[in-house]
Design a protein that fits this description.
Helices cover 50% and strands 10% of the residues. It has seven helices and four strands; from the N terminus they run E-H-E-H-E-H-E-H-H-H-H. Strands 2-1-3-4 form a four-stranded parallel β-sheet, sandwiched between helices.
Length: 204
């Protein structure tokens, strides 16, 4: 059976680009048509291109190439699980930043390569997980600082239109329907009923 080589690249957001990873994969010899990419967080492995590559495309004898270990995930348990999955399926994994992976050792020394790889993967997996923990901590600290400065998050609070009282008086008297009231005040259905709810709670 013909063996094939595939590459995977991931960046965490749409604002980032994977050029550095793509260049490394191409330099290693991965054809462009065999490179899969995601713009998604590494918090888990539920990513569209990755799942397609993992579950549908790759088969026994193939090689998966990634530039860095944390492109698979930033969660150490996930990294371990994915590497064990690929091993069980006969799929080789080449991590470019771990130079020992897939190195040819004599059969009697293969255990040395396995030991070195396991140690490196454990260490780098821990670093990747620690980095994600640090990112979450920075986010929490940023949110806390923003709250102290009264920065509001989420959608802005709906404001009561200037003509609200006059229009709603007509709605309550039956002179105007709700849909016409929305048009008259230039607000959407959700905003309309949100304002009614706030009014009933005495918060408008």
């Amino acid at each position: 059976m013909e063996t094939r080589i595939y590459g995977y690249a991931r960046v965490s957001s749409k604002e980032q680009n994977a050029d550095r990873q793509l260049e490394a994969l191409r330099n290693y010899g991965v054809p462009d048509e065999n490179i899969f990419t995601d713009k998604s967080s590494g918090k888990d492995t539920e990513r569209e291109s990755y799942r397609a590559l993992r579950n549908v495309i790759l088969r026994s004898g193939d090689t998966l190439v990634v530039k860095e270990l944390d492109r698979l995930s930033r969660n150490k348990a996930d990294i371990k699980q994915e590497l064990e999955y690929f091993s069980s399926k006969g799929i080789r994994v080449k991590i470019l930043d771990i130079p020992t992976t897939l190195t040819d050792f004599p059969d009697e020394q293969a255990w040395v390569l396995g030991m070195v790889n396991n140690i490196l993967i454990e260490v780098l997996g821990s670093i990747a997980e620690a980095e994600r923990t640090k990112i979450r901590q920075r986010q929490r600290e940023g949110i806390e600082q923003a709250h102290k400065k009264n920065v509001k998050f989420g959608r802005p609070r709906a404001k009561k239109p200037d003509v609200w009282n006059d229009v709603m008086e007509k709605v309550r008297s039956g002179e105007m329907k709700a849909v016409d009231a929305m048009k008259a005040m230039g607000i959407k259905r959700g905003t309309y009923y949100t304002l009614i709810k706030r009014e009933s709670e005495g918060k408008l």
